[in-house]
């Protein structure tokens, strides 16, 4: 099993550009999550999904969109990149609810918006 | 509202010394508590978790944590630190009810440096 994979690993965007961060898991987990990690701030939940076709906002959803058409994939879309979106983005999945079950994390995508 | 506080931003210990990382939480019900570790350039990995029962829980890599309800704490310990333990450690509280069902709330992390 590859676990949770994310692409790309690094990306530099100009202000106003758009991009999609890809996330795939091969563990057949229903629950998937997107976090952002800023220095000294821990992880903040952006969006999560409890299954294909079902998504919901987390703590910091503004400026992002998600979709979940399959169990395996959970892409994160940035429509109009802003410098405030410079961060490291982690995708995670879990068999059950994250609050009570282990989450498995991808290696992260480091995004810089200039 | 639920929250997690890790009072120590950075801790430095010598290899072979004991380690304790502090974590305090705020949650109205019995918490689900986790410690995750993040090695440089990697995602997070679960060290251990507490749901109920014995308040001293054992995890991977020789780590343990003790849940103290009276102090709202879940401190992580290791008797003898190895150089490979250098990483960032995150405490987290899980929510199993209400409008934020299923979410995990992370502390800001403690960076551990190990001197040889």
Question: What is the structure about, briefly put?
Answer:
Chain A is mainly beta. Chain A is 0% helix and 49% strand. Chain A has no helices and 11 strands.
Task: Please provide a written account of the structure.
The complex is a heterodimer of chains A (114) and B (116). With 114 residues, chain A is mostly beta strands. In chain A, 0% of the residues lie in helices and 49% in strands. Chain A is built from no helices and eleven strands. In chain A, strands 2, 4, 5, 6, 9, 10 and 11 form a seven-stranded mixed sheet that branches. A four-stranded antiparallel sheet of chain A has the order 1-3-8-7, with no helix packed on it. In chain B, a hairpin with a 4-residue loop joins strand 8 and strand 9. Chain B is mainly beta and 116 residues long. The model of chain B has no long low-confidence stretch (mean pLDDT 91). Chain B has no helices and twelve strands. At the A-B interface, strand 5 of A face strand 6 of B.
Number of helices of chain B: 0
DSSP helix fraction of chain A: under 10%
The quaternary structure here is: heterodimer
Largest interface: A-B, 23 and 24 residues
In what range is the share of β-strand residues of chain A?
A: over 45%
Find the structural class of chain A using helix and strand composition: mainly beta
The span between the termini of chain A is 36 Å
Which word captures the global form of chain B? globular
Task: Report the strand count of chain A.
Answer: 11
Number of strands of chain B: 12
List low-confidence stretches of chain A: none
SSE string of chain B: EEEEEEEEEEEE
Uncertain parts of chain B: none
Distance between the termini of chain B: 41 Å
Mean pLDDT of chain A: 93
Sequence of secondary-structure elements of chain A: EEEEEEEEEEE
Helical region count of chain A?
Answer: 0
Question: Any key phrases for this structure?
Answer:
heterodimer, A: 114 residues, mainly beta, 0% helix, 49% strand, globular, B: 116 residues, 12 strands
